[in-house]
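Researcher: Next entry in the queue.
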Amino acid sequence: MTTGKEALFPNYGRFPIRLVKGKGSRVWDEAGKEYLDLMSGIAVANLGHAPEPVLEALKRQLDELWHVSNLFEIPGQERLAALLARLSCADLAFFCNSGAEANEAAIKLARRYHRKVLGNNRYEIITFRNSFHGRTLATLTATGQDKVKDGFDPLPTGFVHVDYNDVDGLKSAITDKTAAIMLEFVQGEGGVRPASPDFVAAVKSLCAEHGLLLIADEIQTGIGRTGTFFAYEQFDAEPDIITLAKGLASGFPMGAMLGKAYLSDGFSAGSHGSTFGGTPIACAAALATLETMEKEGIPARAKRLGEQGAERLRSALSGVPGLVEVRGRGLLLGIEMAAPVAGIVTKAQEAGLLVITAGPNVLRLLPALTIEEEQWNRGLDTLAGLIAAESKDGIYA
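Model: Structure for this entry, 397 residues:
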């Protein structure tokens, strides 16, 4: 009989570190080594590990009710939906368990709205190369990266990929079958690449001209990560549909799809559902997360720390061979180098610092939005020193 690691499918390329405890921006492995976490579970622990307001909300809810079918009214869902509607441009919410499920719901809603409400046969979704939308068959097909599709043929039809920030390419891709455009306002997994304002303006104009829905994938960029509650707020383009997950419930599995009121008939009774979507426990965690963010002004703090951090990195890395660019929004930052950065990730771990990549040549920084300024500056200085040392050793010369 297999035990331990041998009992798991080998579908993750795991770091040889076993983390057993976390608090704030610090985590500890089973040997007691402390790390400064600049990953936050890949933009999940936006309030840090085990934030007190969320912990207390979960404790209260665990004493009351854990699960009830969506065949019943759930007060926590109603309160959470109302809060999300107030914080966003949306009116309605559907709750699920993950980002992939949120994007699946958005794809289904876009298709069904065109078919059942508008009475046309539009079903194609335009997405962008280097995008990332999930790992289900539909969402990996929507993803603009071939690496996630290897071996999963045949893939679903109905997805068209265009170069990011390419207005002419987008125009030429629109046909009478196009139902929606799915856009990350900042591509996270795809290299921490913000959309250009002119490109977003063109997307907005083309959606209006052709009657297309705009789906904002805010799985990684939402919940304060980029310096506003949602990344779309930094662009002059209100989406019709917004997808959320990751930081929504501070590590408790939860996703959400938000939409405008006129889309309600697209999801009529029985058209879509989720057994575990929007449980009382998940809603308690999400409500506490969002209320804490709003009360403490966390998104604005993320904007300030992100801008300061980007400038600190640019200054520290000025003149370092191989540096291509430091870019991003809020506390979603990318450091692009001229060669692979996997070795820097390993050296950072040895130095007690956790970072992740966004493609082979980009270091991605996703700290908790509540990280202490001293911790943030120390982490950036450590990382800049490691990059400079790699360059000195000839890696980027």
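Model: The first strand starts at residue 19 and ends at 23.
Researcher: Noted, moving on.
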